[in-house]
Specification:
Length: 99
């Protein structure tokens, strides 16, 4: 079952997000369908991603994301409380690229 992961945190900054993405590299994680990220008007940053399965997301989080966070912005950021909202997707639509 496909899932969505929504993270909103006052502690995430664009600079921190970019530093982590640089550590992750350009290769998309196995199982990711889409990811968006951006600042929130009230403050902080929001990251949304959709995955083929919860197992894909959890493997990515443990094997790639948390180590990248530790390396880019520190152990405290990686070990902090996770406020990720994870839910099963009933439907997903991704606009195909135009030719």
């Amino acid at each position: 079952m496909s899932i969505a992961v929504l993270v909103h945190s006052q502690e995430i900054t664009a600079e921190g997000y970019d530093a982590v993405q640089q550590k992750l590299g350009d290769e998309p994680p196995e199982g990711v369908l889409v990811r968006t990220a951006g600042p929130v008007e009230a403050g902080g940053f929001r990251v949304f991603s959709a995955w083929e399965s919860k197992e894909h997301y959890e493997r990515f989080r443990e094997e790639r994301l948390l180590p990248a966070i530790r390396e880019a912005i520190g152990e405290e950021a990686a070990e902090g409380p996770s406020d990720a909202e994870i839910y099963e997707l009933h439907d997903i639509f991704i606009k195909p690229p135009e030719s």
